[in-house]
Amino acid sequence: MCAIVGVYGNDNAARIASIALFAMQHRGQEATGISSSCNGKIHTIKNRGLVSEVFTDEALKVLAGNMAIGHNRYSTAGGDSILDAQPVFAKYKLGEISIVHNGNLINKDEVRNDLIDKGAIYQTGMDTENLIHLIAKNSKDRLRDRIKEALERTIGAYCFIVQSRSKQFVIRDKYGIRPLSLGKLNSGGYIVASETCAFDLVDAEFIRDVRPGEMLIFDEHKDEPESIQLYEPEYRPCAFEYVYFARPDSVIDNKNVYRTRENMGRTLAKNDQNSPIQADMVVPVPDSGVPAALGYSAQSGIPFEYGIIRNHYVGRTFIEPTQEMRNLKVRMKLSPMKSLIKGKSLLVIDDSIVRGTTSKRIVKMLKDAGAKEVHFRVASPEIKYPCYYGIDTPTQEELISYRMTKEEICKYIEADSLEYLTVEDLVNSIGNDRNYALESFNGDYFVK
Amino acid sequence: MCAIVGVYGNDNAARIASIALFAMQHRGQEATGISSSCNGKIHTIKNRGLVSEVFTDEALKVLAGNMAIGHNRYSTAGGDSILDAQPVFAKYKLGEISIVHNGNLINKDEVRNDLIDKGAIYQTGMDTENLIHLIAKNSKDRLRDRIKEALERTIGAYCFIVQSRSKQFVIRDKYGIRPLSLGKLNSGGYIVASETCAFDLVDAEFIRDVRPGEMLIFDEHKDEPESIQLYEPEYRPCAFEYVYFARPDSVIDNKNVYRTRENMGRTLAKNDQNSPIQADMVVPVPDSGVPAALGYSAQSGIPFEYGIIRNHYVGRTFIEPTQEMRNLKVRMKLSPMKSLIKGKSLLVIDDSIVRGTTSKRIVKMLKDAGAKEVHFRVASPEIKYPCYYGIDTPTQEELISYRMTKEEICKYIEADSLEYLTVEDLVNSIGNDRNYALESFNGDYFVK
Amino acid sequence: MCAIVGVYGNDNAARIASIALFAMQHRGQEATGISSSCNGKIHTIKNRGLVSEVFTDEALKVLAGNMAIGHNRYSTAGGDSILDAQPVFAKYKLGEISIVHNGNLINKDEVRNDLIDKGAIYQTGMDTENLIHLIAKNSKDRLRDRIKEALERTIGAYCFIVQSRSKQFVIRDKYGIRPLSLGKLNSGGYIVASETCAFDLVDAEFIRDVRPGEMLIFDEHKDEPESIQLYEPEYRPCAFEYVYFARPDSVIDNKNVYRTRENMGRTLAKNDQNSPIQADMVVPVPDSGVPAALGYSAQSGIPFEYGIIRNHYVGRTFIEPTQEMRNLKVRMKLSPMKSLIKGKSLLVIDDSIVRGTTSKRIVKMLKDAGAKEVHFRVASPEIKYPCYYGIDTPTQEELISYRMTKEEICKYIEADSLEYLTVEDLVNSIGNDRNYALESFNGDYFVK
Amino acid sequence: MCAIVGVYGNDNAARIASIALFAMQHRGQEATGISSSCNGKIHTIKNRGLVSEVFTDEALKVLAGNMAIGHNRYSTAGGDSILDAQPVFAKYKLGEISIVHNGNLINKDEVRNDLIDKGAIYQTGMDTENLIHLIAKNSKDRLRDRIKEALERTIGAYCFIVQSRSKQFVIRDKYGIRPLSLGKLNSGGYIVASETCAFDLVDAEFIRDVRPGEMLIFDEHKDEPESIQLYEPEYRPCAFEYVYFARPDSVIDNKNVYRTRENMGRTLAKNDQNSPIQADMVVPVPDSGVPAALGYSAQSGIPFEYGIIRNHYVGRTFIEPTQEMRNLKVRMKLSPMKSLIKGKSLLVIDDSIVRGTTSKRIVKMLKDAGAKEVHFRVASPEIKYPCYYGIDTPTQEELISYRMTKEEICKYIEADSLEYLTVEDLVNSIGNDRNYALESFNGDYFVK
């Protein structure tokens, strides 16, 4: 999923970028990097590891300058090379350039093959390299024009920040699938970040979301960013950001993420109101199931209890690349509150079910700990389709809802009952004022 | 505060001990160590760092044998030497010995000075070294008798596990101030650990708490541990374990820690029931304020909301040694949920107020984020006295409740109102069937 | 200066390459890397550090396959990025490719600018990237033809090894400036390496030097490498390899490096034979001045003594990038043998004088230690011109022999006398059967 | 073998100590440590690793104060614990104390057992702990008197430096087996070090060797160290320091180590002068065989040649603890100069033969490289007895000269001839003005 940030017009640009990346660490923990521009030269530091590990004081000294872009990398298939960290830097005809990217380009292989046919070489596995090649091969005199034309060949869900030696160009695709917001730093200058939760920590005021199809240009000669509407907006923000990925204190498209999750829980409770089930307590799968569980509890009157404790010393399991390691460590991460749940009927709430293996393990863990019944509620619809718009999902065959009906899944995970939200429920919970990117739930791959 | 563990009669003793220490990481993150006994030789590995960092597969290979003791070290004043990690190992007349200790010895300086007067040398700053010297200087033929006599000179709150080449001796002081529980491993053998939360992860059944004043002896020639009641019990478990330190899924003295915290919150709500305050939501200071906030919400009917988000990537701030570092990182750890709390009146619940600086910062952060009112509730009484029984508290001068009245503190932290539990409230919340160690609240330094 | 190696047709290709790189560590200590090819896929591991640090058993497991190329990087100006390590890997039209390079391309900026003008992007600071671009942009069907045409645009001193998924192409420029030898592994397959000292350690037999202007092609379908003479040879091996850079046990162009250095020392002695100087002992600046000092001693009859001790625990000073660090550590590296030299007249032999600062420090150190006289002899001519053919020299202004006469230098370094070899002496010492690359001494920049 | 250093009366005491330890790194590479005294408090930093790794600027900041003692640890059997690094620190009746020790105590087990019988505990495996216990158990009021009486119980080869909060006590055993010299720092204050090679680097003037049986006391109230002759000297310096262990530029007992090694080589040549052997060149086993080879060459007229190259990038093999690792890496360390030795008859000189395995491998390597004949000469007598005076030798069974005659060894290592020095030769080479500690050669275990 990744996080990106751009800071412009502040002498502590790299430091501010690093703190913003720290606040968005949940979006990617595999690698991180920052490029600053100073006196016409771009400096880049990128490495595997957490923001707090990579950006030491020493590293920040190297990253001098009053503008910086940064990236947190979420592991995706195959890309375990250090070279696959961002920003991607290159020298080209107009000088030096560095790019960060959040999203996924649908036509990346086609463009790559075409460029390779024409003699390009690719040194990384990242689709970000496409954009640099398209910019470099263009013959326009101004970078802004090259970017525009490069985007003509770029289909997908994307947020780019392109930094030259003196400017920054921020672009969000016309659907606005991935979030991107603009803020004003109280210490001077601007910040653009994937999530608004970054603004608080760096003492910035939220101005507005970057518009779908918009290009913002930060230029030393102008006090305010220039805005160019490159494409007619067809706004379809990603529903999955609300369900699971964004931090609850972020605001996307004027919607507070926490509140939308609470609504999802309330909706689950409304759907259950005629159910014969008599649960003793609502138990969230921590941490992401908590807001929905609070909503369910508030709606239903069934008390909310912390029946599962999360151990925060586990390290990076939660978001780690391979399936095996997730299996190995799941028991070290979640502990059942035995004395609380013994003999009780639990209404367990999780944000989603992907492969089903974790859910199965949680149900087993709770029953082993003495739970009488485990009713599983999922604060999202069934995930039947892989996401090609920037969220790391497994292949369709690995998606349990592709292979099984709800009843079969309930049996598989050994729950006493299982309910999901419908797609309509989800849309209503977030806010029915908008089309959303819902492809994981309904297969509507609308990006073309 | 520290955590200790002993595993006896299991071929994976050190591995089980390391997993138990992992489950008790919250009790100490500065250093960790394990001694195993194998073929009449004791092997020790100890180092600074987290359990998951120190106990690699390679380290565990060195720690062969079917018995092991382990320790997590919580930083205490001055002791930043690697030599101050436990277990403490020594060769003495009867062979090799290794000891872990949780607690604090009241008369440690007196004993130390006396031993030094008689020619002893001290190579560490730990009071654990006292016990080894007392054992070594004793002339009895059996280790058990030496330990008994050594304990005659040992006044304080303590849980010791002493490991020789073939036996383990577990001792808890007559007051039972620090928790210590006995379990049976489903894979064979026994485990003794500071908290029962360790038992679940290593697949052990809780048998019972080690009794105040009891010595348990594990011996290869006996299937079950031998129990010797060294001292008449005067049971006074530490109230602070319930308030703050123990993991919520642990059970101490048959009382579920989570439930006691919930009760503390309920009591706060009952005390507030005639209050004119109209709070819009109950907001916990995460993570330890959560159960009390749930209790307050359930009792009062005011909705529980996650108004403060905790960032879990911060690292070891929470429990780090120096005050400065805590200051520096507090904003990186806790983020206010702006859109949730804006214009709202908040009933904020924390587990305790020690110096007052963190509380002040939290109130400011919430008001900066738009909270209309912040009513601060503390799920424990005012801390007016330093703890000498094993919990790391600052000097009395640093305790805000020693220096200020409740009203003054309320003003200092800039809250709109402030309430604590009374000592009686606290006792009733935990369970009024017991005398507790309450010295931090009432100055009753009963250990003599 | 760098070292390169290629191994073909051996199941332990990467391991053999790593041992060969270890034997050639003196040619570059900043970074090292290896690419292997296995089942149509190229794997690359490269990093800063010594060969023994980077190529752990774990790393070698990743580098499976029966062919591998490797590189040791010597730091050159500006290139401190991890991205500037070799091999350079890319995907291009014909598949995957990886290249290692030793040397320096004279027209690199021109080619680079031209390629950039045509839309290429450069992600590293290495001239090796030129060759990949030229190969990628070519339209020929066969890699060998693309390489040939790419070389048409490539002017300079170079040794390349290009590895595709199944073949290796070895190319040496027509002057043969940098050394490159072919060997046969006793365990099967072939090895190509910058220096023959690599062959002994990997149990390979020296076959012959790769010929100037030759391309060797290793192909799985042929038992022996195919040889194509791309260019008419104009053999001019680098004299500086004999003077200083190659390991003394290497053989370049059938000339044993140690013997040539001994000859240089003998020639210095012959030149001195009518000198009125009465030296008590010949003292080498260790390690590289030793063979010449032995030659001087054998020729003159003045005893050879180890008057300067080299401390081998210093680490990587000798070859480290910045001038400052060299200054700081020089005294830690070399110690005078006080009791040996006190009151004595010393004939000190070093391989070369570049900036003069080290020589000045050595003379001072020896005089401080009690030497009566220090006569400085240099086993090479005065270095007046920077090398553009692959050896890292400072700018012309920094070369002391560009700024000063021999007499001025003698005064500057505070020696009692100073003599160099003439260029003719040098050529005769190496062997007067050949034109050599002598540009550092005579400014003959013959590469066009 | 270890190195020790004491610096007194200089504000950069710890920094100077660290540089002196760096100069004596050859005496021990397993671990290193320094204790400084500042304002009545002793600070200690010790760790595994090289001096340049452990003593960073940060570490030296901690080690404030105008006096410091330091130690380099050579690995000895069994002691691989971090706790076995020196200095050894303890609190005892008179305050704080820290001790470094070079040597070996003959009666250490007896004293240890006696102390343990009386109730002492031992936390390390080092005999240095004995001295601290003896000092601590003594009842005298002054540390100097306690040290004196403690030494009454201490039999062996030793150099101690004892540091209290304000003084340093330097003691050398009455035989003076291990070297120890006194110097005056040009920047103020005094230095005591195992080898004089440390003095040059820290800019100190050699004053004299510490006398056998002497105690030097450094005291802030006196400008010069007080000297107390504790025992009647029976001077017997260790011959092995001259043969192998000391750095060639050190001076021990007024004898330059390099010169004594040269003499050993000359003596070997004299012994060979009627030999029918016609060697083409004298080849040292680098680095320690070099001076003797130069002596042999000078005496015999046979040219000295560097027939074996040593690779200095190997790391710490030379001095590493286990036999296995030495085996593995020997070929990576030494390379034969093929073209030099091919078809030649070599006179190879090494400093000693211990187990015979390395010698055997060297002969094989040279013959594989084409040597016609390999005549092995050893610049020391046959080692038939283990050293108990501080040098790490294997058990007697592992000493090849204990198990085999010279002829058998020659056959075993496959040399064409083999000669040693006689014990008399060795004594004459060093200087026949002294009794030496020769126990490894003649079994004269004189220390009682």
From TrEMBL, chains A, B, C, D:
<dbReference type="GO" id="GO:0009113">
    <property type="term" value="P:purine nucleobase biosynthetic process"/>
</dbReference>
<dbReference type="Pfam" id="PF00156">
    <property type="entry name" value="Pribosyltran"/>
</dbReference>
<keyword id="KW-0658">Purine biosynthesis</keyword>
<dbReference type="GO" id="GO:0006189">
    <property type="term" value="P:'de novo' IMP biosynthetic process"/>
</dbReference>
<feature type="binding site">
    <location>
        <position position="350"/>
    </location>
    <ligand>
        <name>Mg(2+)</name>
    </ligand>
</feature>
<keyword id="KW-0328">Glycosyltransferase</keyword>
<feature type="domain" description="Glutamine amidotransferase type-2">
    <location>
        <begin position="2"/>
        <end position="221"/>
    </location>
</feature>
<dbReference type="GO" id="GO:0000287">
    <property type="term" value="F:magnesium ion binding"/>
</dbReference>
<comment type="pathway">
    <text>Purine metabolism; IMP biosynthesis via de novo pathway; N(1)-(5-phospho-D-ribosyl)glycinamide from 5-phospho-alpha-D-ribose 1-diphosphate: step 1/2.</text>
</comment>
<dbReference type="InterPro" id="IPR029055">
    <property type="entry name" value="Ntn_hydrolases_N"/>
</dbReference>
<dbReference type="GO" id="GO:0004044">
    <property type="term" value="F:amidophosphoribosyltransferase activity"/>
</dbReference>
<dbReference type="InterPro" id="IPR017932">
    <property type="entry name" value="GATase_2_dom"/>
</dbReference>
<dbReference type="InterPro" id="IPR029057">
    <property type="entry name" value="PRTase-like"/>
</dbReference>
<feature type="active site" description="Nucleophile">
    <location>
        <position position="2"/>
    </location>
</feature>
<comment type="similarity">
    <text>In the C-terminal section; belongs to the purine/pyrimidine phosphoribosyltransferase family.</text>
</comment>
<dbReference type="InterPro" id="IPR005854">
    <property type="entry name" value="PurF"/>
</dbReference>
<keyword id="KW-0808">Transferase</keyword>
<feature type="binding site">
    <location>
        <position position="351"/>
    </location>
    <ligand>
        <name>Mg(2+)</name>
    </ligand>
</feature>
<dbReference type="InterPro" id="IPR000836">
    <property type="entry name" value="PRTase_dom"/>
</dbReference>
<keyword id="KW-0460">Magnesium</keyword>
<dbReference type="InterPro" id="IPR035584">
    <property type="entry name" value="PurF_N"/>
</dbReference>
<keyword id="KW-0315">Glutamine amidotransferase</keyword>
<protein>
    <recommendedName>
        <fullName>Amidophosphoribosyltransferase</fullName>
        <ecNumber>2.4.2.14</ecNumber>
    </recommendedName>
</protein>
<keyword id="KW-0479">Metal-binding</keyword>
<comment type="function">
    <text>Catalyzes the formation of phosphoribosylamine from phosphoribosylpyrophosphate (PRPP) and glutamine.</text>
</comment>
<dbReference type="Pfam" id="PF13537">
    <property type="entry name" value="GATase_7"/>
</dbReference>
<feature type="binding site">
    <location>
        <position position="288"/>
    </location>
    <ligand>
        <name>Mg(2+)</name>
    </ligand>
</feature>
